[in-house]
């Protein structure tokens, strides 16, 4: 093999391919995921870097993209088919991805859903199902994928079970059990009761008169109730959802 100008990034054009020690061997993990895909009758699987709360910074248990590919950046999306795997990320992480991915992966230097959709149209034949875990996608993102595939003969297939979690098995980290604590009143500005009353007032004044508000962002519940936790490293939040109605919480 001719000497590479850099030895800290992969060189998949070399014979044999060169991988730095920071790269992760994803062969067995991809094979496990592909077996689960075949069992579900799907031809592709989309794996985002977010958790079910759309968090950019996540716990080890939710690092599905990192476990599958080895890529540990905070933003990225992967698509895996039976014979291909591709990762999309932004320019902050291009060099990092070249250090962490093995040669099973194509690196796409963009994050646009249009680019992901075009790749899927080329990789998945007409009539194929594109599976995903719907809890890991916002409504806007789901709609963007739907538009990208609209009229193509490919169908988004929401699955109740997360296939990466199934492939990960009992090696997946356990849920956090960190303590939730209250912030002193001098740091919060308002009590949680005052904040709840303020939201209910806005609900009454809104033109659509909503009767309930669902909070899924971890920082939203933490702010509302003046609570903090440590479920995600370096982020003072805890896993939660809040359903606030006119009369109940």
From TrEMBL:
One Gene Ontology MF term: metal ion binding
Keywords, alphabetical: Aminopeptidase, Hydrolase, Metal-binding, Protease
Residue ranges constituting the Creatinase N-terminal domain according to the UniProt record: 29-161
InterPro entries in alphabetical order: Creatin/AminoP/Spt16_N, Creatinase_N, X-Pro_aminopeptidase_P
Region (Disordered) location: 1-23
UniProt biased composition (Basic and acidic residues): 1-13
UniProt family annotation: Belongs to the peptidase M24B family.
Name this polypeptide is given: XPP2 aminopeptidase
Gene: Xpnpep2_0
């Amino acid at each position: 093999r001719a000497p590479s100008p850099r030895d800290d990034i992969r060189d998949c054009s070399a014979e044999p391919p060169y991988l730095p020690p920071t790269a992760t061997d994803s062969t067995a993990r991809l094979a496990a995921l592909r077996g689960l895909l075949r069992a579900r009758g799907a031809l592709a699987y989309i794996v985002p870097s977010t958790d079910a709360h759309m968090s950019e910074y996540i716990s080890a248990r939710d690092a599905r993209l990192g476990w599958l590919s080895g890529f540990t950046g905070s933003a990225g999306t992967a698509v895996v088919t039976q014979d291909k795997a591709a990762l999309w990320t932004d320019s902050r992480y291009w060099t990092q991805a070249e250090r962490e991915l093995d040669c099973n992966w194509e690196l796409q230097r963009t994050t646009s859903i249009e680019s992901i959709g075009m790749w899927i149209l080329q990789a998945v034949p007409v009539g194929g199902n594109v599976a995903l875990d719907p809890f890991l996608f916002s409504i806007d993102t789901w709609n963007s994928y739907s538009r990208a595939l609209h009229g193509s003969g490919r169908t988004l297939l929401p699955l109740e079970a997360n296939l990466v979690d199934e492939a990960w098995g009992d090696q997946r980290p356990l849920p956090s059990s960190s303590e939730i604590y209250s912030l002193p009143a001098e740091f919060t500005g308002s009590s949680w009761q005052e904040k709840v009353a303020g939201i209910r007032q806005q609900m009454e004044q809104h033109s659509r008169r909503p009767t309930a508000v669902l909070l899924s962002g971890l920082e939203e519940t933490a702010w509302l109730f003046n609570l903090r936790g440590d479920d995600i490293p370096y982020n003072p939040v805890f896993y939660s959802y809040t359903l606030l109605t006119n009369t109940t919480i």
